[in-house]
Design a protein that fits this description.
Helices cover about 50% and strands about 15% of the residues. With about 325 residues, it is α/β, with parallel strands linked by helices. The protein has two domains: about 5-205, Spore Coat Polysaccharide Biosynthesis Protein SpsA, Chain A (Alpha-Beta Complex); about 225-325, no CATH class. Strands 1, 2, 3, 4, 5, 6, 7, 8 and 9 form a nine-stranded mixed β-sheet that branches.
């Protein structure tokens, strides 16, 4: 166990108008690392000023270039190289997360113990899982199995040498940039490890259906963009997810509607049966993971209906790509 992790690690926090969530986040990281860098993406709530007042190095992204979490983390890493070039590990954290006490020691110990592991992450839970059903959905989403995994979320600890070697994140990837980054890390033979220890508490702050819809739309955009980059390799990353969105979100409902006049509505009933079977299958997977029946049902229902907003995201990606326009971040929660 490392007795003083602060001399071996730097922390990069990214945020945009996180308000009180950012203040809570920074209280959990300031003084815990060799340096703490806060990267701000055009906040108007005083976040950069607050971060500077508590001792963080602040990087304010130039608004002349499109904002993205990928770009923010890259520029945060560049700041670390400037001010703490000998930091061996980098902990990335989002401004709506609190870092759990003891995680840095456990994450460093995991990397020290496995020379083949480039990235470690721990368990993430929602701060307020009962505040809304949408927060509850996020809490279920964070429950990932312990051991070697294909990808981590954007909150993880990484070897600085590996981050530099793969070129960091691709700044133009506006969602699922963590998946895209991990694909390239694994392609170089490195492992990614989920540790059985609490890493962070997240505040999704999703109180309304509209916020959930926008988040699902962003997921569809992410699937389309990352599949366009890596869907043709042996792993076919996100290619299957993209096909499911097209089928369940567009092809099946269109076929059912088109055939309805000729089948006296039976095609609509058949489509409903197909969606019900999807619900039952996904529900069964949730129960197999040990979830309560109510949690499995909630998760399954929203996965089934998420194909519709995800389809919007897929179409938006291809439309923007066809027009040659820049890709803009898709925000889903309020700025309070």
């Amino acid at each position: 166990m490392v007795s003083d992790p602060s001399q071996r690690i730097a922390i990069v926090v990214i945020g945009r108008n996180e308000g009180e969530r950012l203040k809570s986040c920074l209280r959990t990281v300031v003084g815990c690392a060799r340096t703490v860098v806060y990267v701000d993406s055009g906040s108007t709530d005083g976040s950069p000023q607050y971060a500077g007042s508590v001792g963080c190095r602040v990087v304010a992204l130039d608004p002349a270039r499109p904002f993205s979490a990928a770009r923010a983390r890259n520029e945060g890493f560049d700041c670390v190289l400037e001010h703490a070039p000998d930091a061996k590990y980098i902990q990335f954290l989002d401004g709506d997360c609190d870092l759990m006490e003891g995680w840095l020691e456990q994450g460093i110990a995991a990397l020290d113990a496995r020379a083949d592991v480039a990235i470690v992450c721990g368990l993430v839970r929602e701060l307020y899982p009962t505040a809304s059903i949408y927060n509850r959905l996020c809490d279920l989403e964070w429950r990932q199995p312990v051991g070697e995994i294909r990808t981590s979320g954007g909150r993880f600890m990484v070897r600085a040498e590996v981050f530099r070697a793969v070129g960091g994140f691709r700044s133009e990837v506006i969602a699922a940039e963590d998946d895209e980054f991990c694909i390239r890390v694994r392609a170089q033979g490195w492992k990614i490890l989920q540790v059985d220890a609490e890493m962070a508490r997240h505040d999704a702050a999703m109180m309304h259906f509209g916020a959930w819809w926008r988040r699902a739309r962003r997921t569809g955009h992410a699937y389309a963009q990352v599949a366009a980059l890596h869907g043709g390799n042996d792993e076919r990353y996100f290619a299957h997810d993209r096909r499911k969105i097209w089928f369940w979100g567009l092809i099946l409902p269109l076929l059912a509607l088109a055939a309805a006049p000729f089948t006296y509505g039976l095609s609509l009933a058949a489509a409903l049966v197909a969606y019900t079977m999807q619900f039952v299958r996904i529900y069964g997977h949730g129960r197999q993971r040990g979830w309560q029946a109510s949690d499995a049902a909630l998760h399954s229902f929203f996965v089934v209906i998420s194909r519709m907003p995800a389809l919007q995201g897929v179409i938006a990606y291809h439309w923007r790509r066809w027009r040659g326009g820049g890709l803009k971040i898709i925000e889903y929660k309020g700025n309070s």
